[in-house]
Amino acid sequence: MTTAVAKAELHCHLEGAASPDLVRRLAERHGIALPAGLFADTGAFAWHDFTSFLAAYDAASSCLRTGDDYRELTRDYLVACAGEGAIYVELFASPDHAAVVGLDYAALIDGIAAGIDDAAAAHGITARIIVTCIRHLGPERAGRIVDAMCAAPHAYVVGFGMAGDETVGEVADFAPAFAAAADAGYGCTVHAGELAGADSVRAALAALPVSRIGHGVRAVEDPDLLVELARRGTVLEVCPGSNIAVGVYSDYASHPLPRLLAAGCRVTLNSDDPAYFATSIGAEYDRAATAFGLDDEDLGAITATALDAAFVDAGTRRRLTQRLAEAAA
C-alpha cells in the first residue's frame, strides 16, 4: 500500500522499466533468442554487480525494436505509476540503445510520446522525456545525440542527461554536448556521486550547466560540498532502492538521504531502473516513510521539490503544483 501523497519522479531509465514479462513478450514477438542466464529462477533479471547489471540491461533493451514497443513500455510504466499516485514522471530515453537495433531517433521519440499520450488520456498522468547519452560510449556520440535533439525538436523532449559508467573518462569532455543542449533550451542533469565519490559531483558542477545531479548521494562524503549543493539549490535525484541494490550502501540504515536533507540539500525520490531493483516510485515513497521516518508533510515537500525542478514549462508546473495541493487537501 503506497502513501497517499501525490508523487513525482525525475529519474527513471525507460529501458530499465521494461519488466521481465514484457521482455519475454517482445522477444517472442520479434523472434529474438534471449541469452542464457538473463533471468533468475524467480523470473527476475539475473545480475550480481554493476557490470553484470549493465550486460543484462543491454540484452533486455535489445528486445525493444520498434516505436510501438516503446509505446507499450511507456504506457504500461506510466499507468503503473499513476496507480501508485504519481502525477508526473520524467523518463530517461537512450537513443544509443535504440540505434543498436536500428531504430532511429524520431521513431524512438514518437513511440514514447504516443505512450505518454495514452497514459495521460486514461489516467491523467503527465510525463516528459529526457534524452540521455552514455558516458562510456564517449563524447562524440553525446554530441551526435544533441544534434539529433536540436534538429528534430519535440514538445515532450525537455532535457538532456548522461548515464552510464561514471568511472569512465572525464566529465569535462562532455561539456560541448551539454553546452549545446543548454543553449538550445534543454534542462540538463548528469549521473554523478553514485559509483564515483564526491569528487565526481564537484567535477560535474564545475564542467556542466546542470541544475540537477542524478544520484549525487556520495556528496555526503564531503561536508563542504553539501554546503555548496545547498547554496546552489542543486537538486539531487536520489534513488535509495537502487543504491542498496547495486551495493553503494548496504542497507537503509546506512543510506545518507536523512543527512542530505539535514544539510539543506534539495532531494527527490526516484526508482532508477525499477524492473531490476524490485522497486517502483510508490515503493520508494513507502520506504522513505518506514526507513527514514518521513511523514506525509515531508514526502509532500519532496514531491514539491521535484515539480519545482522538473524540466517543464511554467503552465504545466502550475497545473501539477495545483494537483499536489489538491491531493494534500
List keywords for this structure.
TIM Barrel, alpha/beta, eight-stranded parallel β-sheet, globular, 329 residues, 15 helices
> How far apart lie the N and C ends?
20 Å
Strand content: 5-15%
CATH first level: Alpha Beta
* Cα-based radius of gyration, to the nearest Å: 18 Å
Silhouette = globular
CATH overall fold name:
TIM Barrel
Name the helix and strand elements from N-terminus to C-terminus, one letter apiece.
Answer: EHHHEHHEHEHEHEHEHHEHHHH
Label the CATH architecture: Alpha-Beta Barrel
Tell me roughly what share of residues is in helical segments.
40-55%
Largest sheet: 8 strands, parallel
Quaternary state, please?
single chain
Question: What report would you give on this structure?
Answer:
The chain has 329 residues and is α/β, with parallel strands linked by helices. It has a single domain, classed as Metal-dependent hydrolases (TIM Barrel, Alpha-Beta Barrel), CATH 3.20.20. It is built from 15 helices and 8 strands. The protein has helices at 20-30, 50-61, 67-83, 95-100, 105-123, 139-151, 175-183, 198-207, 223-232, 240-245, 257-262, 274-277, 281-292, 296-309, 314-328, and strands spanning 7-13, 86-93, 126-134, 157-163, 187-192, 212-215, 235-238, 266-269. The protein has an 8-stranded parallel beta sheet with strand order 1-2-3-4-5-6-7-8, with helices on both faces. Strand 3 (126-134), helix 6 (139-151) and strand 4 (157-163) form a beta-alpha-beta unit. Helix 3 packs parallel to helix 5 (105-123). The longest helix has 19 residues, at 105-123. 48% of the residues are buried. The model has no long low-confidence stretch (mean pLDDT 95).
